[in-house]
Structures are given as structure tokens and as C-alpha cells.
Amino acid sequence: MTAGPRLATPSELATWDEHTVRAPGGHAYQSVAWGEHRARLGWTPLFVVLDDQRRALVLTRRAPVVGSASAYVPR
Predict the structure, then answer these.
(1) Per-residue pLDDT of the chain (75 residues; tens, 9 = 90+)
(2) pLDDT of residue 17
(3) How far apart are CA 14 and CA 59, in angstroms?
(4) In the prediction, which pLDDT does 63 show?
(5) Is 49 helix (H, G, I), strand (E, B) or coil?
(6) Residues 72, 38: contact at Cβ < 8 Å?
(7) Longest dimension (CA), the chain
(8) DSSP state at residue 37
(9) How many H-runs (helices) and E-runs (strands) does the chain carry?
(10) Is residue 51 a contact partner of residue 61, using CB atoms and an 8 Å limit?
(11) CA 5 to CA 51: how far, in whole Å?
């Protein structure tokens, strides 16, 4: 049985950019620094490890005034 997506562990975060930025096809918009930058602008970064060890930065933000939320995966 294959596990589903989950949040990254601290040890996985320590090597996050190796897998998302410096890997073939990687991009700075998947970096820990980009997640921290977006957090300063009100987004919540979720560093997700997919079942096949691929990784994705998912950004979420609540919009309580209108009773909704949004999320996106950059790049």
C-alpha cells in the first residue's frame, strides 16, 4: 500500500530545495525561501511530500470576510 500526500518532516525540509529547486525541472517558486516570502504576505505554506517522493509547495490563504479560502501550487 502506498502512502498518500503528507506534510514534510523537519529533516525533509532541511533538503527541500535540493529536491525542488536544484533538481532537473526545479524552480525557485517551490523553494523554502519562496514559502517564507509568501507567508509574510498572509499565505500559509504547506510543504507536501507526494506518495512517490515528489515534493510540492502548496500555498493557502483564508478569506474570512467572504467565508472562503484559496490555494495554489506555484510553478
Answers:
(1) 567 899 999 999 999 999 999 999 999 999 999 999 999 999 999 999 997 779 999 999 998 888 889 988 887
(2) 98
(3) 19
(4) 86
(5) strand
(6) no
(7) 41
(8) H
(9) 3, 4
(10) no
(11) 5
Query: Which contiguous run of DSSP H or E holds residue 11?
Result: helix 10-14
Q: What's the rounded Cα separation, in Å, for the pair 75 and 64? A: 26
| Contact call for residues 75 and 29 (beta carbons, < 8 A) | yes
Residue position matching grid coordinates 525557485: 28
30 near 70, Cβ under 8 Å?
A: no
The residues, any chain, with a CB within 8 Å of residue 31's CB and separated by 6 or more, are 16, 17, 20, 21, 57
Instruction: Note whether 9 and 57 are within 8 A (CB).
Output: no
